[in-house]
Amino acid sequence: MKKHIPFLVLFLISCYSCENVESNSPTIQANLDNYFFRSSGSFAEKHQDNSYTLTGSLDNQVLKLHIEGPQAGDYIVGGGSQNWATYEDENGNVYTTIPDGEGVITITEWDTSFKTLTGNFKLTMMIPGIDTLTVSKGIFYEVPYGFGITETPNQDDGNVIAKINEQVFSPVSVSATHTGNNIIIVATGTNFTITLTFPADISTGNFSIPSNGISAAISDGTISEAALNGTTIVVEHDTSFNVLRGSFTFSTENYQITLGQFNVTY
Fold first, then answer.
1. Span 223-240, mean pLDDT?
2. Biggest CA pair distance of the chain
3. Alpha-carbon span 169 to 166, nearest angstrom
4. Distance separating alpha carbons of residues 63 and 81, to the nearest angstrom
5. Is beta strand 131-144 parallel, antiparallel or unpaired with respect to 116-127?
6. Residue pLDDT, tens place only, 56-71
7. How confident is the model over 43-67, as a mean pLDDT?
8. pLDDT for position 17
9. Other C-beta atoms within 10 Å of 2: how many?
10. What is the pLDDT of residues 88-102, one digit of tens each?
């Protein structure tokens, strides 16, 4: 009987692996509260600053993990770090770790020969003031960052998300510029552009929009509408590393912009 023990061990290890990664194909998967998410497609994008964003998609759902990189180890999410995660559900609701989420993303294997990332994660993400999502038993397996992926320099200066009239706004580019007197954030999407302007010396706190050099606007490419009223919360302004993070909401004549969040480097 003893000679069969190694085979039993191998069998048990194999079964355990099957519970965590259901196939040998690249994947991102996790328990989202009581819902099991397993991507049908996944890839990782390398950015100009050597950070990486892993993306897993399933139908209309998208899970993103962003790490400063590039090396194996733990990447702490929250507490002012540049690591973050977002999850967009099938109804267009966007949960995020910015600004108050937390967790850790761990790279267990960074394969530079085959250009793949393997690891695990656990997170707490939120729709601020509305809902909290607990992400557990997260795994990403051999997610490629070099095969069939364009690793062109990413010109984005950070991350901006929001809802426009209850529709998710997911910009394709984000720029943040220090003009001397102001910091201007421009988030450009397929149909809309949101612009946020802050005084260069803005501190953390709650502020009205518009007021004291703070303004916001939305454009559909033809007409631009300025914010009539709104609020912004600046949760971090690090002038040493030029980091600005916070949230915003505002109204114009025809648009309601809600659940806005920004995390940029200018």
1. 92
2. 80
3. 9
4. 19
5. antiparallel
6. 888 888 899 999 877 8
7. 85
8. 39
9. 5
10. 888 878 888 887 889
pTM of the prediction? 0.54
- Count the Cβ atoms, other than its own, within 10 Å of residue 194: 26
Return the HEC string of the chain: CHHHHHHHHHHHHHHHHHHHCCCCCCEEEEEECCEEEECCEEEEEECCCCCEEEEEEECCEEEEEEECCCCCEEEEECCCCCCEEEEECCCCCEEECCCCCEEEEEEEEEECCCCEEEEEEEEEEEECCCEEEEEEEEEEEEEECCCCCCCCCCCCCEEEEEEECCEEECCCEEEEEECCCEEEEEEECCCCEEEEEEECCCCCEEEEECECCEEEEEECCCCEEECCEEEEEEEEEECCCCEEEEEEEEECCCCEEEEEEEEEEC
pLDDT tens digits for range 21-36: 444 567 899 999 989 9
CA dist., res. 155 & res. 160, Å (int) = 14
Q: State the pLDDT at residue 257.
A: 95
Q: Which residue has the higher pLDDT, 69 or 5?
A: 69
Sorted by sequence, the CB contacts under 8 Å of residue 223 that are 6+ apart come out as: none
Q: HSE of 255 in the Cβ direction (CA atoms, 13 Å)?
A: 24
User: C-alpha angle 192/154/163, rounded to 5°?
Assistant: 30
Whether 51 contacts 68, CB under 8 Å:
yes
